[in-house]
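stage 2 :: seqdesign
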């Protein structure tokens, strides 16, 4: 039977609020007098010596090449004040990766450990905290809302709240405060906390060298090896049985369903990123838990109408979905959670409750900050409502794989427009004709991103999505491309006035999958036309 949804925990200490933010947004430039900022949220007044600041300035993240450019991530000592409370010997290091890293003299994301060098020292009961700059979530709310949803679904997740930060007298402004993964967190959810807690780092699979955050036997990673071997078993019946002996299947089904339902495109299931794994010694099974839940409910590489049967990249997720038992259990879990947990009225009410709590602090940083926040909150609620409707519609109307013609080509139709960044500027869409050509037109002004999209369910195999496009007025800054939801491609150069061929290759794994095909355009100013008749999908 599905696990009963957990009751929303009553947060304490710094976690009485909750949240973070949504697309790229510049930091607050004009700060108010410190005394005018409300004190109902924690205020981290951090002091770091100048030699250590120089060490922090010398670091920058460049993990795309497989490591950290500028040296390994520096760890320094800091003193932290919150009102009359003073914490010494606090370790501090910069955090963030591809999208969220910012240099120390900008608006950096930071991790603080209060007990590493001062055993027993805690901040409001917590030993490890992160201060997230939330540059990828302009609402400041996705972390808190998403973590609460995972918790209600029975998946352990750290708490999230908000704070303001001052570094060496420089007011950095508003931050999202998150609890760190570690034994303090584990003790709230498990009786035995001696098993390994794995940190996947940046885009790592379970068969790679995952860092061990805590655990009595950090060198023993045989449990991960057994799980990977079970997921790789070619016999689907054996695979299902072996997965059930190495994986906490009940929690994993909820974890997988919630990642998809919240559109966590940058999580384990769809991107092999932003996750933790804990070896529960009581059951001798592995438990997956979410991390980095800031780009949620249909932003960036996803949309609120994203498929509930998406292409899976995570080995365990893909392996489970390829088994008839796993696919059936997953769909049943999505249906259960859509009824018991993913309730749009309840979620949006919670969004507005948290927004009301943090708005006075944002307003202290400027009236415009509060006005913009209201807009971002409305957009977040709109996405949540649209996502709930889409899940219900998809459950009620399951898709069957498309039929390809004898040449292996699928007919593409029913294209619909989507403004993927409405807060960034104006985007216009139009279907037009030019001679015998049917054209999909996008025009941007003042910045923004728009796309034409359609969906198709495909059998396993390799596919090529191809077509032609031309631009006008986009200059060298326009980005045009074809892709599928949940992926990113390098921008194509499309000559103004000339029809330029575009293509995107992708693979559908071991099970039929619904794919969202996207014709995308990003530009400060400009226009693009996609030749609808040229858009075709072929099996390779």
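stage 2 :: out
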């Amino acid at each position: 039977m599905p696990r009963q949804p957990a009751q929303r925990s009553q947060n304490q200490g710094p976690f009485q609020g909750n949240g973070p933010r949504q697309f790229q947004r510049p930091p607050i430039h004009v700060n108010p007098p410190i005394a005018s900022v409300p004190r109902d949220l924690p205020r981290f007044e951090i002091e770091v010596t100048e030699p250590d600041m120089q060490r922090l300035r010398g670091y920058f993240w460049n993990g795309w090449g497989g490591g950290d450019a500028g040296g390994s991530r520096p760890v320094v000592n800091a003193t932290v004040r919150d009102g009359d409370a003073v914490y010494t010997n606090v370790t501090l290091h910069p955090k963030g990766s591809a999208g969220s890293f910012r240099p120390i003299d900008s608006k950096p994301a930071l991790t603080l450990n209060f007990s590493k060098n001062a055993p027993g020292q805690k901040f409001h009961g917590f030993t490890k905290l992160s201060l997230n700059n939330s540059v990828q979530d302009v609402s400041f709310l996705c972390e808190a809302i998403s973590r609460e949803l995972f918790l209600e679904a029975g998946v352990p997740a750290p708490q999230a709240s908000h704070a303001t930060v001052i570094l060496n007298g420089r007011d950095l402004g508003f931050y999202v405060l998150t609890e760190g993964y570690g034994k303090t967190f584990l003790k709230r959810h498990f009786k035995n906390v001696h098993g390994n807690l794995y940190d996947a780092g940046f885009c790592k699979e379970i068969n790679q060298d995952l860092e061990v955050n805590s655990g009595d036997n950090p060198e023993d990673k045989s449990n991960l090896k057994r799980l990977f071997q079970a997921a790789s078993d070619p016999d689907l019946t054996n695979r299902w049985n072996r997965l059930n002996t190495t994986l906490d299947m009940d929690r994993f089904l909820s974890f997988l369903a919630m990642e998809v339902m919240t559109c966590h495109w940058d999580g384990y299931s769809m991107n092999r990123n932003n996750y933790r794994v804990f070896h529960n010694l009581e059951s001798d099974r592995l438990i997956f838990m979410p991390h980095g839940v800031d780009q949620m409910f249909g932003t960036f590489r996803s949309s609120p109408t994203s498929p509930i049967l998406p292409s899976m990249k995570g080995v365990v997720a893909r392996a489970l979905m390829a088994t008839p038992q796993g696919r059936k259990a997953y769909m049943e879990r999505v249906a259960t959670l859509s009824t018991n947990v993913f309730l749009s009225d309840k979620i949006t009410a919670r969004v507005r409750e948290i927004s009301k709590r943090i708005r006075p602090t944002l307003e202290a940083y400027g009236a415009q900050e509060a006005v913009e926040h209201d807009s971002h909150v409305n957009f977040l609620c709109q996405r949540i409502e649209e996502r709930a409707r889409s899940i219900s519609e998809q459950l009620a109307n399951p898709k069957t794989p498309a039929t390809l013609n004898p040449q292996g080509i699928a007919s593409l139709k029913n294209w619909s427009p989507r403004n993927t960044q409405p807060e960034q500027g104006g985007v216009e869409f139009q279907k037009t004709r030019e001679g015998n050509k049917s054209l999909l037109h996008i025009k941007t002004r003042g910045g923004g991103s728009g796309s034409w999209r359609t969906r198709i369910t495909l059998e396993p195999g390799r596919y090529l999505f191809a077509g032609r496009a031309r631009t006008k007025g986009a200059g060298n800054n326009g980005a045009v491309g074809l892709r599928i939801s949940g992926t990113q491609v390098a921008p194509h150069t499309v000559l103004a006035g000339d029809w330029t061929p575009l293509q995107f290759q992708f693979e559908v794994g071991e099970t039929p999958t619904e794919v969202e095909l996207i014709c995308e355009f990003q530009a400060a100013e400009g226009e693009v036309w996609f030749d609808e008749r040229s858009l075709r999908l072929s099996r390779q």
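stage 3 :: structure notes
- The CA atoms of residues 56 and 104 lie 6 Å apart.
- Residues 409-539 form a domain with the Jelly Rolls fold (CATH 2.60.120.260).
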